[in-house]
Amino acid sequence: MHQFLPYAWFQGNCVPFEEAKVSIATHALHYGTGAFGGMRAIPDPQATDTILLFRADRHAKRLSQSARLLLTELSEAKILAALETMLRANRPTTPIYLRPFVYTSDLGIAPRLHNIETDFFIYGLELGDYLSPEGVSCRISSFTRQEDRSLPLRGKISGAYITSSLAKTEAVLSGFDEALLLNSRGKISEASGMNLFLVRDGNLITPGVDQDILEGITRASVIELAGAMGIPVIERPVDKTELFIADEVFLTGTAAKITPIRQLESTPLATDRPVMNALRERLVKITEGRDKDYEHWITRVAISN
Fold it and tell me: Is the pTM of this model over 0.85?
């Protein structure tokens, strides 16, 4: 059972979570015409009554851009203000995951994005490790990642996640933890909700933004960190077979953080992961507010009365 935060942001106010309800006729429920974000927040290990948000500005910017893809306006300032108000109302004492969501709130039945009401809410829940930090087993999904010419994949459009849902369930029901999706050109795109990296001969490699991936914020952070740590980064198409011979393979995402892939299909993968471990240790240090070089990635929210 999920442990939800007691208050949600709904229709412009903080309300008890149980009171934040939508109609069964809500347009977005039927047509997937919404866009969401995912953010992690933790109590500051070094200061009481302070919550740390990781790259809140980037998350707000992406959600604002996703809203524009739905032909609606949702400013970054409005998102950040709502997040801070909600955090102060909840005063969380454990690590949490925040889910902001912009959606067509109209009760009409025609699939459209014009002449329609929209709204915005946020809820949160306690969340530790989404995937095992020791590593996950993956299979190549029989479902193909959508193309940007059919869906705006640079936004976290809710309707697009039917493919992720099908792929994840297919993987779990066939004995694996997670799925990797190929794009329409037969190259590795991403996992059900995570980006993918591999290491070969000291180079950090990841599918580029032209491979129908979501432009992940953790992905972008890992690329920037690697550059600062002197690790060469290459963004290019990745073949399935490369994963079997790679020195390291891992996933990144807000919920997943940095998680190694320990097995692909029936093949165990390399277990010595010095590059991944160095990046993961640095990212943990940053998210806990202990790295002065990346203090600008952290938003501190005071929650004292």
Answer: yes
